[in-house]
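On clarity, I found the account of how folds are encoded harder to follow than it need be. What matters is that the chain and its backbone geometry are given together, residue for residue. I therefore recommend that a typical entry be quoted early in the introduction. An entry of this sort, consisting of the sequence and the corresponding backbone structure tokens, reads as follows:
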Amino acid sequence: MWGALPWILATPLAALIFRPPARLARAVAEGARPQPAPMVSIVVPARNEAPNIARCVGSLTRQTYPRFEIIVVDDRSEDGTAGIAAAVPLGAAKRIQVIGGQPLPPGWFGKPWACTQGAASARGDVLLFTDADTEHAPELLGRAVTALLGSEADLLSLVGVQVMGSFWEGVVQPQVFMLLASRYPDSGTLFDPYLDDPRKWREAIANGQYMMMHRESYDRLGGHEVVRGDVVEDLRLAQELVRRGGRLAIRDALGSLRTRMYRSLSGIVEGWSKNIWTASRLVYAERTGRVVFAVAVALLVLLWIVPPLVLALGALGIVSAGWTAWAAAATAGSVLFWALATWRIGGSPLYALGYPFGTAAVVHILLRSRRRGDTITWKGRVYGPDAGGPE
């Protein structure tokens, strides 16, 4: 029974170790607003986002901030994304511009290229890059602008609630986010008020679902061209900013930002496979990254798969009562841990009952990502050594 203590203590230990980013202030709700309000250009890169784009753009048009425009860059979609975006009523926006994306140049990934085209059409002094699968509360833009202008940050990135509408989303997404958080356990202090030490550039991270920058800072950095060949462009943009002496702030948007990244197991596997191995090589030196990667896979199996497997064998009478008791205690501790972790990112704690299936999926994603290496397949495009060139 005492052997299960690490699993039982996992929840209180995680609460002590993992510190979420500082919360985004609610200053605008209390009447504070920058004067005069700068023009904000909201850039939404979109490729084959027909299920999401109307909800995203519609939520943006309802922002209470007084001066903003929306630029949707249709990255050569094949599902009618552009037409759906163009049909959204103007609302409070000064304009909605839907741009037909140009062919992908050699050496570029799709999202950095779309963001570059959107920024080129922007009229604002502040740029917001946000994903097409996001949904924004009406007051969020004003709060974010107030936070950016009230700080010394060059880049403000927000994290929000992850919408999980299916079993596989509920059991896999919390585990992936916890895996990512293990690299940044002290983000509550590291980015408060901001990260600005060039020596810590590998510790920088940003959430591509919401990245706000002063136009001047964006241009000085070189825009998305500096990350044109990166699939994890948000992470690389943050790293380049800090490496060059810029200031990075990360804030928790307290449910004012909602994102549903994937809707199926295949989408989850394909989406995370393109990011995990590449990101691990960016946040660690190459040799260290390989070791960390291998250790992560081994720990996932040991901590989250072995106990429920032993418990199942005990139920079948294959292992002893002592091992069964250990496995039952360890599994119960794990269920509690994942219930709280899932609740923390906006999911139902009931998904924790299926956590072993989530771990198995994550291990598969890690190994698949490692096996594919530099070859990335995403939304009908292939990047890397096996690519046949841009369309």
The chain has 15 helices and 13 strands.
